[in-house]
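Cross-check.
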Amino acid sequence: MAQPAVNCAHLVEVVTEWMEGALSDNERIQVEEHLVICPHCTDYLAQLRRSIEVLHESPRPAAPAQARVALFEAFRRRQP
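Predicted model, tokenized:
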């Protein structure tokens, strides 16, 4: 029995796995076929990719000194 074609709701559920290359070949093909015919999901994917780009471009503030000290202490205590 053939799997049903991917719909918009299913694409939203699996898009991260698709982007990471973690889907089966069959499901990957179905997602890509859906993207070819669905402008809404194509826009969604473009927005998702842009969000990722913006996050990568954003400065990452350093953790407060107290938090860094506490983390280093916790790591030291865990070492064998």
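The chain has a mean pLDDT of 90. The chain has four helices and no strands. Passed to J.P. for a second look.
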